[in-house]
Write a structure and sequence with these properties.
Elements lengths: L35 E4 L14 H9 L6 E4 L1
Antiparallel strand pairs: 1-2
The structure holds FE2/S2 (inorganic) cluster (FES).
The site of FE2/S2 (inorganic) cluster has 13 residues, from helix 1.
């Protein structure tokens, strides 16, 4: 028999993005990127996986320091 795991101590990183998917995976073709593209790492962007600046509000409200990763050609 499989024992149910106690998940009460788990914290979710992803609060709301595509929760119907078992795993959120994005594949981006490097040929489609502009000279500079910012990817979200705070999991709050409405344009995920791209950064829309929502990390600023998240950081102010939660004393956090997240920000995007920027890919430059
Ligand atoms: Fe998430 Fe900018 S919106 S890192």
């Amino acid at each position: 028999t499989v024992k149910p795991r106690n998940t009460s101590h788990f914290q979710s990183v992803n609060p709301s993005i595509r929760k119907d998917e078992a795993k959120v995976v994005d594949i981006v073709n490097i040929e489609d990127l502009g000279d500079s593209t910012a990817f979200c790492r705070c999991w709050r962007s409405a344009k995920f996986p791209y950064c829309d600046g929502s990390h600023g509000r998240h950081n102010r409200e939660n004393c956090d320091n997240t920000g995007p990763v920027v890919i430059k050609k």
